[in-house]
Amino acid sequence: MFNILYIFLTLIKAFYIVAEFMHLRHEIKNLIMTIVVPLFLFVWFVAAFLWDGNSYRQLRNNYDPYKKEQSQKKMEQHEAGPGEGKKPGHE
Amino acid sequence: MATAVPVEQKWWSGGRSPFNVEYGKLMMWYFLMSDAFTFGAFLISYGTIRFSSNGWPDANVVFSTFPFMGHMHLPLVFVSLMTFILIMSSVTMVLAVTAGHNNDRVGVMKWMAWTIVGGIAFLSCQAWEWTHLYHEGAWWGSNPFLNYDGTKASTNFTNFFFTITGFHGFHVFSGVVINIIMLIMAYTGVFDRRGHYNMIEKAGLYWHFVDLVWVFVFTCFYLF
Q1: DSSP code, position B14
Q2: How far is B14 from chain A (nearest CA, A)?
Q3: pLDDT of chain A along its 91 residues, tens only?
Q4: Residues 47-66 of B with CB under 8 A from A
Q5: For the stretch B81-116, what's the b/e string if a residue is b when 16 or more beta carbons lie within 10 angstroms of its beta carbon?
Q6: Which of these, B131, B114, B98, lies nearest to B200 by C-alpha position?
Q7: Cα torsion B90, B91, B96, B97: sign
Q8: In angstroms, rounded to a whole number, what is the distance separating the alpha carbons of residues B44 and B40?
Q9: Which residues contact B116 (CB under 8 A, 6 or more apart)?
Q10: Which residue, of B9, B110, B157, B197, has the fewest CB within 10 Å?
Q11: Nearby residues of B21 by Cβ (< 8 Å), 6 or more positions away
């Protein structure tokens, strides 16, 4: 449930940056609508693409059992220790 | 600069700008809107890939270090500091724009200088963070971190992280360059000769936008 709160607070902060810092709230309505209305496309973008990603995950888990099995293998913990990872370019 | 307008104005009958802002500022808004879609595309593709993955690294583990603190576990402290630095530089930018409205050259220069300091501080923090992650083995195509559940993670996480924070960092860098140019122009009296400080407003719009994008980058990469 914290996730919903984080997203809510992010949107509040974004609103105040645009409305007050960028002064959009005090422009005339023509300009406000020109900028804000196209951004509502994001509502559809976010919903559609995240839905799609989730569906792809489920399809793969259903139809590619090998991949699912590989993605559930636990790794040895020490590989994540700081400084112990492989340096890029030194394979 | 927007001027006060009577309510019953016929905006679309010709003879005046229906947006009541000067050309350059309107174009800056259009540019920022298109840039918002660019960043939006990046972040949405990140979200799509993440939703299509069975596991993902834990941000509280990946981003838990602070300069000079050794291996102390301080999740998200450093990135919160970076966020604070950027929002403070946005505040000083607002003060620079306000000083510009009052044709106060010294005030504009003072607050622009502080905004530049904030931008450089943010970039330095990001340079430290990238260097630190690089030494832990994270880079494009290389991900040493495990998923939440201890399974092996793909390189999607690091690829998206370095690409998107890098793209944002490049915007911050451009913003700092623009702000330095504005400072020099204010210093040499260009705006005084023009009689207005509208350029500071346009640079300010860009700078606030960079801050705005960071809010979303921060949420997507560090909080989830």
Answers
A1: S
A2: 14
A3: 788 999 999 999 999 999 999 999 999 999 999 999 999 999 999 999 999 999 999 999 999 999 898 888 887 655 444 444 445 554 4
A4: 47-55, 61, 65
A5: ebbebbbbbbebbbbbbebbeeeebebbbbbbbbbb
A6: B98
A7: positive
A8: 6
A9: B176, B179, B180, B183
A10: B9
A11: A27, A31, B2, B29
Burial of A59 (0-12, 13-18, 19+ CB in 10 A): exposed
Please state, in angstroms and as integers, the Cα–Cα distance from residue B68 to each residue in B71, B74, B80, following that order: 9, 12, 16
Are the C-beta atoms of B211 and B87 separated by less than 8 Å? yes
For A69, the token pair is: 């099995």
In a 3-state reduction of DSSP, which class is residue A43? helix
Provide the token pair at B198.
């509208």
CA distance A26 to A20: 8
A residues 45-84 lying closer than 8 A (beta carbon) to B: 45-46, 49-50, 52-54, 56-57, 60-61, 68, 71-75, 77, 79-80, 82-84
Q: How many CA atoms lie within 13 A of B159 on its CB side?
A: 12
> pTM for the full model?
0.88
Nearest to A23 by CA among B179, B141, B182, B29: B29
- Residue B146: φ, ψ to 5°: -95, 165
